[in-house]
Amino acid sequence: MTLNLLPNIEAPDAFYEALTEAQRDMSEDEANDMNARLVLILANQIGRLADLKEAIRLARD
Amino acid sequence: MLNTYQFPQFDYRQSPEQAAGTVLRHPVVVVGAGPVGLTAALDLAARGLRVVILDDNNTVSVGSRAVCYAKRPLEIWDRLGVARPMLDKGIEWKLGRVFLRDKEVYSFDLLPEDGHKIPAFINLQQYYLEEYMVAAAMANPLIDLRWKHKVVSMRQGEDHVSLAVETPDGIFQMEADWLLACDGANSDIRRMVGAEFTGQFFQDRFLIADIVMKAGFPTERWFWFDPDFHRGQSALLHKQADDVWRLDFQLGWEADPEREKRPENIIPRVREMLGPDAEFELEWASVYQFACRRVDNFRHGRVLFAGDAAHQVSPFGARGANTGVQDIDNLSWKLAAVVKGQAPEALIDSYHAERAFAADDNILNSTRSTDFITPKNAASRRYRDAVLALSGKYPFARPLVNSGRLSTPTPYVESPLNTPDAEEWSGRMAPGTCAADAPVRSGGQAGWLLEHLGEGFTLLVSGPEAEPVTCGAFTASVLRVGQDIEDSEGKIATRYDLCDGAVYLIRPDQHIAARWRSFDPEAIRAAILRATAGTEA
Ligand SMILES: Cc1cc2nc3c(=O)[nH]c(=O)nc-3n(C[C@H](O)[C@H](O)[C@H](O)COP(=O)(O)OP(=O)(O)OC[C@H]3O[C@@H](n4cnc5c(N)ncnc54)[C@H](O)[C@@H]3O)c2cc1C
Predict the structure, then answer these.
(1) Residue A17 lies in a domain
(2) What confidence tens digit (pLDDT) does each residue in B347-362 have?
(3) Closest-CA residue in chain A for B400?
(4) How many domains in chain A?
(5) Where in this chain does the record put each FAD-binding domain (chain B) (predicted)?
C-alpha cells in the first residue's frame, strides 16, 4: 500500500478552514456538488488505480 | 411513416424430408437467420460442412436495430466474402462529439490506426447487412436456408438433438448432431434446454427512432447529456445509409412507452433536437428497456448458444451483433474439426471458456456505459454531473465521460488453448489476441496480411528456416515474410515484433496460439495439440 496515512497536509488548520469556508453559504446540494468535483480533481492528482481503490475502501469502512 | 427500404419476402418451400415424412439426421442445424445465424451458416459452409438453417420468419430484420459494425466482424465477413457490399453501402465515421446542454465538452477521434484493410467502424441498417448475407447463403450449395420453419420443441439425446419444426405445411421432426441456437435474446431453445439467462435490467427506457433527413449534420456521432431540447435526459444522433439517421432519446423509467411511441409525441422532440428548419420524416420508432445478461453455459450437451441467445448487452458501445459474429468466428473452426473427427469434443468446451470470457468483458463495458448514462442513485448522478461539468473546462475529466466505449475484440488472455510466451516480446500480439492486419505485397500485388492467412493453422515466420508442421489431422502451413509476402510498410515487423527467425502460430480464426523466437517443430507440434484440445497419443 502506498497511501500516506501520516500527516502530510502542509498547514492543517488553514486547509480545513479553506474547505469549510468554501461551503459556508452553500445549500446541502451545492456543497455536495462541490464535494463531488473536489473528489474528482484530487483523484486525478493521485492517478494510480490501486491507491484510489485503497482510499475508497478506507473512506467506506 | 416513410419507407426507404423494401423488405424482401423470401419464398417458403416445403422440404423433401417433410414431404416424404422421413426423419433425417443433419450434421449441423442452425436456428435463427439473424446476423449471427447467417454468419454461422456461411462460416461452417466455408469450412466444408453442410448446414441447414431455420428461421420462423421470411424476411430480414424489421425495425430500428443494429447500426454500427466494428473492424473485427467486418474482417470476419471479409473472410467469408460478404463484406464488400456492406463497406460500399455503409457509412464510415471517425469522430464522436459529446455535448452537455448545448455546449460541446469533448470530442473523440477513433483515430483508426492506418495500415488495415477494414475501417474502424461503419454504420449500416441491420436489414442491409442481413440481405447481403441471405443472398450469399442462398447461393451457397452447402447451405439449406429454410424460411417459415419454427422450432417448437426439442429433446437432447446422447449424441444428437431431435427437433419438432412447424411450417405452413404442419409440424415435422428432424435430428441434428449439433444444434446452434442463434435464435436471439428471447431464445426459445434456451427455454427448452432450461438454461439460465441472468443479469441486470436497467431501470430506464429509450425511444429509438429512425428518420429520413436530407441535409445538415456531419457524419459524426453526437451524444448529448442533459440537452436543452430534452432536459434531464440524454440523446444520440448517428447517420446511417440512404440519409436515414438514428436518434435515441432517454426517457426515464416513468415514461409510458405507448404514449412516447406516437408520432405526434415524437415529432416535436425531434424538431427541437434538429432545429426548426430541419426537414425530416419519421421512418420507424420503438421504445426499449435495455438489459445485460448471459447464458450460464454456451454449451448444453449438443446445443451451442451464440449471439443474443447467449448474451444480451445494452446498445451503448454497439456490441450485440459485433460480439455475436465473433462467437461464430471462434466456434466454426472448432465445430468443423470435431464434426470431421479431427479433434475431440473437448475443443468445443473451449468455445465457452473463450466466448463467455469475451461476453463478460462486453457486459462489463456496456454496464459501465449504461450506469454513466442512467446513474443508479442520487450519489452516482452527482458524480456523473460533476464529471460532465469539469470536462468542459479541464481535459483530465474527459476520459471519465462514458457515452459508450466502442467495441474491440477481447483477447482470450486466459484461454486453455494458448501456449504462454517463454520469451520477451513487444507489441500487442500476445497469445489469445486477434491477429492485427498489415499491408503486404505479393507477386507484385498490394494486399493485406489477413487475406494470406489460410483456412487452417498458419505459421507466420520471418527468416528462411521453417517448414509446415503436422500434428494429428492438423497441418500448419508456412507464410514467409520476405518471400511469400513482403512487409511493404514494415507494419508486420512492428505489430508482431517479428525479427529474424521469429515464428507465430495463428489459429484458423486468426487468433495467436503461440510464438517463438526461432523455429522449433516440436514446440509447434505441442502448441497445435494444445490449441486443438488434443491429448498425446
Ligand atoms: C436499438 C438497438 C440498437 C442496436 N445497435 C447495435 C449496433 O449498433 N451494433 C451491434 O453490433 N448490435 C446492435 N444491436 C444488437 C443487435 O441488433 C443484435 O445483437 C443482433 O440482432 C443479434 O443477432 P442474432 O442473430 O443473435 O439474433 P436476432 O437478430 O434476434 O435473430 C434471431 C433470429 O431467430 C429467429 N427465431 C427466433 N426463434 C426462432 C424459432 N423458435 N425457430 C426459428 N427461428 C427463430 C428470429 O426470427 C430471428 O430471425 C442493437 C440492438 C437494438 C435493439
Answers:
(1) no
(2) 999 999 999 999 999 9
(3) A40
(4) 1
(5) 27-361
